[in-house]
Amino acid sequence: MAALFTGKVLVANREQDELDTERELCRALENKVLLLYFGSGQCPRCRRFAPLLKDFFLRLTDEFYVERASQLVLVYVSRDETEEQQSAFLRSMPKRWLAVPFGDAFGRELELRFAVSEVPAVVVLKPNGEVIVGNAVEEIRSMGPACFQNWQEAAELVDRNFLLAKDFDNWSRRSITDPIRRLKYKLDKKMEAKSKERKEEGED
Protein backbone atom coordinates (compact mmCIF):
# COMPACT_ATOMS: atom_id res chain seq x y z
CA MET A 1 0.00 0.00 0.00
CA ALA A 2 2.86 2.36 0.77
CA ALA A 3 3.69 2.24 -2.95
CA LEU A 4 0.59 4.35 -3.62
CA PHE A 5 2.08 7.03 -1.37
CA THR A 6 5.73 6.76 -2.40
CA GLY A 7 7.25 10.23 -2.48
CA LYS A 8 4.10 11.70 -0.89
CA VAL A 9 3.36 13.07 2.57
CA LEU A 10 0.56 12.15 4.95
CA VAL A 11 -0.21 14.11 8.10
CA ALA A 12 -1.16 12.55 11.42
CA ASN A 13 -4.41 14.07 12.69
CA ARG A 14 -4.06 16.88 15.27
CA GLU A 15 -0.30 16.44 15.38
CA GLN A 16 2.50 18.08 13.48
CA ASP A 17 3.98 14.72 12.53
CA GLU A 18 4.32 14.00 8.84
CA LEU A 19 4.70 10.47 7.52
CA ASP A 20 6.96 11.03 4.58
CA THR A 21 9.58 8.30 4.67
CA GLU A 22 8.99 4.90 3.10
CA ARG A 23 9.53 3.23 6.47
CA GLU A 24 6.95 5.41 8.26
CA LEU A 25 4.38 4.93 5.52
CA CYS A 26 4.93 1.16 5.49
CA ARG A 27 4.45 0.97 9.25
CA ALA A 28 1.23 3.00 9.05
CA LEU A 29 -0.30 1.30 6.00
CA GLU A 30 1.15 -2.19 5.60
CA ASN A 31 -1.19 -5.18 5.89
CA LYS A 32 -4.25 -2.99 6.48
CA VAL A 33 -7.49 -2.20 4.72
CA LEU A 34 -7.20 1.44 3.60
CA LEU A 35 -10.14 3.81 3.43
CA LEU A 36 -9.71 6.95 1.36
CA TYR A 37 -12.36 9.38 2.56
CA PHE A 38 -13.06 12.17 0.09
CA GLY A 39 -15.12 14.84 1.78
CA SER A 40 -15.51 18.38 3.05
CA GLY A 41 -16.47 19.81 6.40
CA GLN A 42 -18.69 22.34 4.58
CA CYS A 43 -20.63 19.92 2.36
CA PRO A 44 -24.14 19.19 3.81
CA ARG A 45 -24.07 15.54 2.67
CA CYS A 46 -20.60 15.12 4.20
CA ARG A 47 -21.74 16.70 7.47
CA ARG A 48 -24.51 14.11 7.69
CA PHE A 49 -22.20 11.22 6.80
CA ALA A 50 -19.10 12.19 8.82
CA PRO A 51 -20.54 11.25 12.26
CA LEU A 52 -21.46 7.80 10.87
CA LEU A 53 -17.95 7.33 9.50
CA LYS A 54 -16.42 8.50 12.79
CA ASP A 55 -18.53 6.00 14.74
CA PHE A 56 -17.74 3.26 12.20
CA PHE A 57 -14.00 3.88 12.56
CA LEU A 58 -14.06 4.07 16.37
CA ARG A 59 -16.05 0.85 16.71
CA LEU A 60 -13.33 -0.95 14.76
CA THR A 61 -10.25 0.68 16.26
CA ASP A 62 -11.07 2.07 19.72
CA GLU A 63 -10.25 -0.10 22.74
CA PHE A 64 -13.63 0.73 24.25
CA TYR A 65 -15.39 -1.29 21.55
CA VAL A 66 -12.88 -3.92 20.45
CA GLU A 67 -10.42 -6.21 22.17
CA ARG A 68 -7.83 -5.32 19.57
CA ALA A 69 -7.80 -2.56 16.96
CA SER A 70 -8.74 -3.80 13.50
CA GLN A 71 -6.33 -3.64 10.61
CA LEU A 72 -7.85 -0.48 9.28
CA VAL A 73 -6.43 2.90 8.35
CA LEU A 74 -8.24 5.97 7.03
CA VAL A 75 -6.79 8.81 4.97
CA TYR A 76 -8.83 11.99 4.61
CA VAL A 77 -8.63 13.60 1.19
CA SER A 78 -10.03 17.08 1.64
CA ARG A 79 -12.21 19.18 -0.60
CA ASP A 80 -12.28 21.92 2.04
CA GLU A 81 -11.87 25.47 0.79
CA THR A 82 -9.29 26.52 3.38
CA GLU A 83 -6.69 24.85 5.56
CA GLU A 84 -8.55 26.17 8.62
CA GLN A 85 -11.72 24.36 7.50
CA GLN A 86 -9.79 21.12 7.03
CA SER A 87 -8.12 21.47 10.44
CA ALA A 88 -11.43 22.25 12.15
CA PHE A 89 -13.06 19.19 10.59
CA LEU A 90 -10.17 16.89 11.51
CA ARG A 91 -10.19 18.10 15.12
CA SER A 92 -13.67 16.59 15.45
CA MET A 93 -12.56 13.24 14.01
CA PRO A 94 -10.53 10.33 15.50
CA LYS A 95 -6.86 10.98 16.24
CA ARG A 96 -5.81 7.90 14.28
CA TRP A 97 -6.99 9.37 11.00
CA LEU A 98 -4.33 10.43 8.52
CA ALA A 99 -4.75 13.18 5.94
CA VAL A 100 -3.31 14.40 2.67
CA PRO A 101 -1.90 17.88 3.46
CA PHE A 102 -4.20 20.74 2.47
CA GLY A 103 -3.61 21.98 -1.06
CA ASP A 104 -1.44 19.00 -2.01
CA ALA A 105 -1.96 18.13 -5.69
CA PHE A 106 -1.83 14.46 -4.68
CA GLY A 107 -5.42 14.78 -3.44
CA ARG A 108 -6.55 15.61 -6.95
CA GLU A 109 -4.46 12.73 -8.33
CA LEU A 110 -6.30 10.34 -6.00
CA GLU A 111 -9.68 11.74 -7.10
CA LEU A 112 -8.82 11.12 -10.74
CA ARG A 113 -7.27 7.73 -10.12
CA PHE A 114 -10.34 6.41 -8.28
CA ALA A 115 -12.89 8.31 -10.39
CA VAL A 116 -14.32 10.28 -7.48
CA SER A 117 -16.84 12.73 -8.90
CA GLU A 118 -18.83 13.69 -5.81
CA VAL A 119 -18.48 13.68 -2.05
CA PRO A 120 -18.78 12.02 0.35
CA ALA A 121 -16.94 9.05 -1.12
CA VAL A 122 -15.10 6.23 0.65
CA VAL A 123 -12.79 4.13 -1.53
CA VAL A 124 -11.81 0.81 0.11
CA LEU A 125 -8.44 -0.63 -0.89
CA LYS A 126 -6.50 -3.82 -0.28
CA PRO A 127 -2.98 -3.51 1.15
CA ASN A 128 -1.63 -3.91 -2.42
CA GLY A 129 -3.70 -0.95 -3.64
CA GLU A 130 -6.43 -2.92 -5.44
CA VAL A 131 -9.95 -1.58 -5.06
CA ILE A 132 -12.33 -3.62 -2.89
CA VAL A 133 -15.22 -1.12 -3.04
CA GLY A 134 -15.32 1.93 -5.32
CA ASN A 135 -17.56 3.89 -2.94
CA ALA A 136 -18.59 2.33 0.38
CA VAL A 137 -20.72 5.21 1.68
CA GLU A 138 -24.03 3.33 1.35
CA GLU A 139 -22.49 0.09 2.65
CA ILE A 140 -21.23 1.89 5.78
CA ARG A 141 -24.62 3.56 6.23
CA SER A 142 -26.58 0.33 5.97
CA MET A 143 -24.27 -2.28 7.51
CA GLY A 144 -22.04 -0.35 9.88
CA PRO A 145 -18.89 -2.09 11.21
CA ALA A 146 -20.14 -5.49 10.02
CA CYS A 147 -19.01 -4.70 6.47
CA PHE A 148 -15.37 -4.60 7.60
CA GLN A 149 -15.30 -8.38 7.89
CA ASN A 150 -16.17 -8.67 4.19
CA TRP A 151 -13.40 -6.23 3.29
CA GLN A 152 -10.94 -8.04 5.54
CA GLU A 153 -11.62 -11.34 3.81
CA ALA A 154 -11.38 -9.71 0.38
CA ALA A 155 -8.06 -8.12 1.37
CA GLU A 156 -6.68 -11.50 2.56
CA LEU A 157 -4.91 -9.90 5.49
CA VAL A 158 -2.23 -11.99 7.18
CA ASP A 159 -3.67 -11.56 10.67
CA ARG A 160 -7.39 -12.22 10.85
CA ASN A 161 -7.74 -11.65 14.60
CA PHE A 162 -10.81 -9.45 14.61
CA LEU A 163 -13.44 -9.12 17.29
CA LEU A 164 -16.36 -6.76 17.24
CA ALA A 165 -17.39 -6.20 20.84
CA LYS A 166 -21.15 -6.15 20.29
CA ASP A 167 -21.68 -6.48 24.03
CA PHE A 168 -20.56 -2.89 24.48
CA ASP A 169 -22.65 -1.26 21.75
CA ASN A 170 -25.14 0.36 24.10
CA TRP A 171 -22.80 1.34 26.88
CA SER A 172 -22.19 4.94 27.84
CA ARG A 173 -18.67 6.23 27.16
CA ARG A 174 -18.85 9.00 29.75
CA SER A 175 -17.72 7.16 32.87
CA ILE A 176 -14.02 6.69 33.57
CA THR A 177 -14.94 3.41 35.26
CA ASP A 178 -16.12 1.89 31.96
CA PRO A 179 -12.91 -0.14 31.36
CA ILE A 180 -13.22 -1.59 34.88
CA ARG A 181 -16.90 -2.37 34.34
CA ARG A 182 -16.04 -4.02 31.04
CA LEU A 183 -13.54 -6.29 32.79
CA LYS A 184 -16.06 -7.07 35.56
CA TYR A 185 -18.67 -7.82 32.89
CA LYS A 186 -16.34 -10.36 31.27
CA LEU A 187 -15.51 -11.98 34.61
CA ASP A 188 -19.21 -12.15 35.54
CA LYS A 189 -19.97 -13.85 32.23
CA LYS A 190 -17.22 -16.43 32.88
CA MET A 191 -18.50 -17.07 36.41
CA GLU A 192 -22.04 -17.53 35.10
CA ALA A 193 -20.82 -20.05 32.53
CA LYS A 194 -18.86 -22.01 35.15
CA SER A 195 -21.79 -21.99 37.56
CA LYS A 196 -24.07 -23.28 34.82
CA GLU A 197 -21.58 -26.06 33.99
CA ARG A 198 -21.42 -27.10 37.67
CA LYS A 199 -25.22 -27.23 37.91
CA GLU A 200 -25.45 -29.34 34.79
CA GLU A 201 -22.77 -31.71 36.11
CA GLY A 202 -24.66 -31.95 39.44
CA GLU A 203 -27.87 -32.88 37.62
CA ASP A 204 -26.06 -35.64 35.76
TrEMBL record:
Signal peptide: none
Thioredoxin domain residues: 1-142
Gene3D superfamilies listed in its UniProt record: Glutaredoxin
UniProt-listed GO biological process terms: photoreceptor cell maintenance
Taxonomic superkingdom: Eukaryota
Species whose genome carries this gene: Nestor notabilis
Name of protein: Nucleoredoxin-like 1
SUPFAM superfamilies: Thioredoxin-like
Any one Pfam family match given in the protein's UniProt record, by short name: Thioredoxin_8
